[in-house]
Amino acid sequence: MTDTTLQLEDAAIDLDAAAPTAWSPATWFAVLSMAAASFALVSAEFLPAGLLTPMARDLGISEGTAGQVVTATASVGAVTAMLSNVLIGKLNRKTVLVGLSALAIGSNILAAVATDFWLLLLGRAGLGIALSAFWALSVAVVARLVGANATGRGMAIVTLGVSLATIAAPSMGALISDWVGWRSAMAMTAGLAAIAMLLQFLSLPTLPATTSNSLADVFRLTRRRGIQLGMLAILLLMTGHFAGSVYVRPFLEHVTLLGTGPIALALLGFGIAAVIGNIAGGRMADANIHMALAATAALMAIAALALVLGGVHIGVAFGFVTLWGLAFGMAPVVLPTNLSRAAPDALEAAGSLMVTSFQVAITIGAVAGGYVVDNYGATAPLTLTAILAASTAVLALLQPRN
Hints:
17 helices; Growth Hormone, Chain: A; 402 residues
């Protein structure tokens, strides 16, 4: 990694430049600090799933009301994603990232000591800002650290923190809250953010701003055909995933007729496969982004359709839930890399659009999945997943090469 790569003052990142064959220890340390930040932020995001009951009891609110802490994080994050790269202006990106980790520390501490629901919501809103701003910057920062042609590999390592947090946070949160209380579990996520902040401070090189974005710049980027198709791919695939994945457990209960233990094993297989998918997705994205996107979408479509058609059989259910996990692990690497290839000269603005697309897809997916499962039964959300994922695969094959 050369100083020229790190500065990139006003030039577009060269997508045709040869990717480095090996990273220096400093580069590894910097990328791993980004992975630590993603783990800390996403752990805090998913932690309430294991804490709702004791949290609601302690604050004197219903579990449904307590669940709105997740909504607060997502809704604030959706707005932040569009504005973050505008508001940070010409600030050094290392300073911004360290500051976002500091914000996560403060937000988690506020949530841990909150004496009423509104203080808890305020803490979670702060986490939403830190989370979305981090992801909006992530692709641009990783590209500067490792080179554009190794962005997929770098993002695979960063998003590995997401897979690990998705697996660990809800279960560990539940266990810790049983041992020492939900407030202690919240406080521990502040500790994770503190570790990430220290690693970023020590390992990230100075990252001067390459440009100062305006909101008009972000919206202007949407005129590009590649950006439009990249955002559409995120909307289709992630809407499909979140429409169906939320209802995998009810499907396994009511269609496959599994008990709690086997369902836990199936979901563990999903999580382990997602970690493998992270690694595979990074390598595929750097080799051929269009085929990587097509493969990711096709695997998810096949998995969902196979569950609909043969999910009554235990072996089929276990096998294709695992395949779904593999595809899901690939998606957070492949989708942002695909979008970034259409804007090598505006990676930060593209990052804002990427995060917004993900947030919108999560919202639409949750609403659509809830509607179809209530009106058409347990297999309907998975059918919707298969249709939208297959549409994404077709889009990937038809997408023009850059």
